[in-house]
Design a protein that fits this description.
This protein has 8 helices and no strands. With 209 residues, it is an all-alpha fold.
Length: 209
């Protein structure tokens, strides 16, 4: 079991800097096959906004969340981190589910969560190992009292960290722009000129064949 845990941690450390590329490829596949339609489009947007709200709440407490794990300067236990240890990953799961619903592809939800587990579980194990080595008993106590993924009702009593809108402005603006562009393109694909272009392209293929 120990060797499996070590292998997961090493694999997670390798996946961590490449996670954006992996999600980008998966997102492109879903976009090319998507056929958005109401009311799923509206439900997906609501779920995506909920997830992004949780991301903003969590990101505001993390100074270098886009950097490597080795840049963790403190053990953050305030804000959403008082209720669960990985609010950003939960937020990403909610956002990904929302985008999958917007796409109109039921199987994309299953594909997303399969990829989510395979990608993030090793990363989470690697992060936990790093934090335990860096913060020692403080992190062990925190990990014992706060669940990994599903929030608890009672917050962790020892709060460490403060929320900063400056971090949101500097870091999360990338995610906000990406989400906005993704939803807009999916809207155009389902209800706008991209749908017309797709039909013209199919008509052209039938004509030349």
């Amino acid at each position: 079991m120990a060797s499996i845990a070590i292998s997961l941690e090493r694999w997670g450390a390798k996946l961590f800097p490449r996670r954006g590329i992996i999600w980008g490829v998966l997102g492109l596949i879903i976009f090319l096959l998507a056929h958005p339609h109401y009311p799923l489009f509206s439900w997906g947007i609501a779920l995506t906004c909920l997830g992004e709200g949780l991301r903003i709440w969590g990101v505001g407490y993390i100074k270098n969340y886009r950097g490597p794990m080795q840049e963790a300067e403190r053990l953050t236990t305030a804000g959403p981190y008082a209720y669960l240890r990985n609010p950003l990953y939960l937020a990403n799961g909610i956002i990904g589910t929302g985008i999958a619903i917007i796409s109109g592809l039921w199987w994309s939800i299953i594909l997303f969560w399969l990829a989510f587990y395979l990608l993030y579980f090793p990363i989470i194990r690697a992060e936990e190992s790093f934090l335990e080595n860096k913060f020692g008993e403080s992190y062990k106590t925190y990990a014992r009292e706060v669940p990994r993924f599903f929030p608890q009702l009672s917050p962790y009593p020892e709060r460490n960290g403060t929320f900063s809108w400056r971090v949101i402005e500097k870091k999360e603006i990338i995610t906000l722009f990406t989400l906005g562009a993704t939803i807009f393109l999916l809207y155009l694909r389902g209800f706008g000129f991209l749908k017309i272009l797709n039909r013209l392209f199919l008509f052209f293929l039938l004509f030349i064949l």
